[in-house]
Design a protein that fits this description.
Helix content: 25-40%
Distance between the termini: 33 Å
Number of helices: 5
Order of helices and strands: HEHEHHHEE
Shape: flat
């Protein structure tokens, strides 16, 4: 998510664009989406909303993606993922550090996914998860409560104690 303040100064925007754009041999996509305003901002008073609080102040969402070649090796695929997470994703966070991301269009490898996807709402989401799913049946790698599990390299999912 991008706030108006984040794009008010040319220099940091230009720096972000330089990182987010691609090298000639890369296939990178960037889309700036108009995401909110009006009633979305008004609904900020609703403390029961599940939306990341940054939705209430960010009129733009930046979506960036990069695809590896169809015949890419595992190492090449990891390099592409790392570029999105630790280079391009970091540039977007540097541009708008006090915002977040819409989890359906975000980087599932983001090591700060709890803050990025949920922000200050996470404790209340976790309380609801624990109340309605006390056995932790429902899981996804970036869903509320996922930090209680470890994805093992062999594919097994283990509860972290």
């Amino acid at each position: 998510m991008i706030t108006r303040d984040a794009v008010s100064d040319y220099t940091p925007v230009r720096e972000a664009v330089e990182v987010l754009s691609c090298k000639p041999e890369e296939y990178v996509g960037n889309v700036v989406l108009m995401s909110s305003g009006g009633q979305v901002y008004e609904d900020a008073k609703d403390r029961t909303s599940g939306l990341h609080p940054a939705w209430r102040t960010s009129p733009y969402v930046l979506a960036t993606w990069r695809h590896p070649a169809n015949n890419a090796t595992d190492a090449e695929r990891k390099a592409v993922n790392d570029d999105i997470t630790f280079v391009k994703g970091a540039a977007a966070k540097k541009l708008a550090p006090n915002t977040g991301a819409y989890m359906n269009e975000a980087d599932r490898n983001d090591p700060d996914y709890i803050q990025t996807f949920y922000g200050a709402n996470y404790p209340s989401h976790l309380a609801a998860k624990n109340k309605y799913d006390p056995q932790h049946v429902f899981y996804c790698p970036t869903c509320v409560g996922a930090e209680a599990f470890v994805d093992r390299p062999d594919g097994a999912l283990c509860r972290f104690h």
